[in-house]
Amino acid sequence: MADIALQPRTARRPIREASRWDLIKANRNYLGFWFMLPAMVFLVLFLAYPLGLGIWISFTDARIGRPGAFVGLENYEWLWGDSIFWLSVFNTLLYTSVASVIKFAIGLYLALLLNENMPFKAMLRALVLIPFIVPTVLSALAFWWIFDSQFSIISWSLKQMGLITDNINFLGDVTWARICVIFANIWRGVPFVAITLLAGLQTVSPSLYEAATLDGATSWQRFRFITYPLLTPIIAVVMTFSVLFTFTDFQLIWAMTRGGPVNATHLMATLSYQRAIIGGVLGEGAAISNAMIPFLLAAIMVSWFGLQRRKWQQGENND
Amino acid sequence: MSSVQIRDVRKSFGNFEVLHGVSIPIEDGEFVVLVGPSGCGKSTLLRMLAGLENITSGTISIGDKVVNNVQPKERDIAMVFQNYALYPHMTVADNMGFSLKLRGAKPEEISNGVKRAAEILALTPLLERYPRQLSGGQRQRVAMGRAIVRDPQVFLFDEPLSNLDAKLRVAMRTEIKELHQRLRTTTVYVTHDQIEAMTMADKIVVMHDGIVEQMGTPLELYDTPANQFVAGFIGSPAMNFLKGKVKSNGSAGFEGPNGVKLPLMSAPANSEGKPAVYGVRPEHFTIADDGAEAEIVVVEPTGSETQVFAKLGGEQVVAVFRERHQFNPGDKIRLKPDPALVHLFDETTGKRLNA
């Protein structure tokens, strides 16, 4: 059969020893270090350094244009007795908790809805993202007009319908102002929650739902026993981010109310900016910012432990 | 347990009909295997039986009841999925007891049911594990355990072994068959693997392009395939097909490609000179002096038998011998089909011609 005997292949080039440069090129640790360097420089320069500087400034009496001297915990002692600071803490907690809970509820609802088969699914998914892609300041300005004391379209519509006789003072009344900024934050934050949860829903294999259907589960039971438990890791991540973003919110408030009326919508971030940049008292502003750290750490810990439990459930390692 | 009747069932997705009127009677306690190449509609039919797809026309009944408009959970069926569909966040015990829990069974009732099924499948030491911690074969058994706990009228299997490696597949095949022999629950099993079908089924249903090609016991299908499709689908290595025409010269005979003479037991009536397809299974060749000359191309010994690929009248055929011949590529041999066991098919319709 085999009439043609193949010539044995010979090396085309003589084999040479690997040079030092070859070894460096092949060394994964060395290469890994170089790939990591840009990210490290970025993190140190724009995160670690400002954070350290912020903490240092909070222990000084620095003002704009004056470096300031070390004063220990004086700034924090001062804040401890400052009722406006405590009001801003209350506002921030209220703003974060109410907005996050509602964002989660609406986001989950939208995600479940968009996960169903329906006409124009792709278009609806794109539409949901709109509040997320509009620059925050622009949407805040739009809300500012919507809630304007004289030109509010809501007041105008209600008056046309004969439901009210006078304009509602949306951003001038303490309760209304809080409702308005929370509403704006929810409007802006829902797409992030909805799209992320939708991505999570799509990782759940449809055959699990079919199996559950055959096992006799109603649609509520399918959600309660299949969807929800499988979605918890993504819920933990998305809600951590949502809480962090909401807690540190600045743009929306600053563009809509600047913390007013009578500090009713001042968050810790806006108060810090007002004291440090507008008021020029850098040390005190930095102290207010730093006061956010324990809250943020607590939020991260909650989700971290949530994820830990999840890993164990899924049994990443065999016993 | 109950019988299942599938009567003239059709299924369309939009304007595209995938099942063109399928009727399958399934007796109480029978193990029926739906087999066919991918896209033949076998999985769709199974999902319609489960109630996961609606029925375009025709009826499906379980027991005496037409279930066309019965919710899946009311049909009293249990299904084993190809990917097992185990709930990843539940332990093996919770996975198996889920249906009982949904039914509102008492905790001890659930644990008894789970225990019983776990004993049947030797899953007891694994009950507290999560699906991630199980091997493929163990997951497969949990999926079956989930079905057994339900104690359903009908078991449905959707290609349950195709995610397992070859050795495990053979072991699980035996296990499923043994399980059926113990439980005697009516079972409908879908696979594309004809060996699974042959080894497990009481009755095989060969499907192709949305129709039933043939129904029968494994050996019926093997010995008297109704058409060329079934003949080629059942059996491994596949049946050899040689085109030619019936040409009786005194005794019945067949003229294959390039005038090769092949023996026939008897020519079908009015078939003289008509083009036809001559089918012969690889194991029905013998080496005989009056056989047709063939040139060996490749020899594949498997230990218990040897597969010989050879050119017969220019066409490649495969023959299987249990004897250990000394063959080399290029050798000339004389292959003779056993005339009592050859098949003759119509060239255009593929229908079987000889009895």
- Assembly state (oligomeric): heterodimer
The low-confidence parts of chain A are 315-319
The total count of helices of chain A amounts to: 15
Structural class of chain A: mainly alpha
Helix content of chain A: over 70%
Coarse shape of chain B: elongated
Largest interface chains and counts: A-B, 23 and 27 residues
Give the helix level of chain B as a range of percent. 10-25%
How large is the share of residues in beta strands of chain B? 25-35%
The whole-number mean of residue pLDDT values of chain A reads: 86
**Strand line-up across the major sheet of chain B:** 6-7-8-3-9-10
Largest sheet of chain A: none
Provide mean pLDDT of chain B, rounded.
90
Helix-strand makeup class of chain B: alpha+beta
**Low-pLDDT windows of residues of chain B:** none
Q: What's the SSE pattern of chain A?
A: HHHHHHHHHHHHHHH
The arrangement of helices and strands of chain B along the chain is EEEHEEEHHHEHEHEEHHEEEEEEEEE
Strand segment count of chain A: 0
* Count of helix runs of chain B: 8
Q: What general outline of chain A do the C-alpha atoms trace? A: extended
Rg for CA atoms of chain B: 24 Å
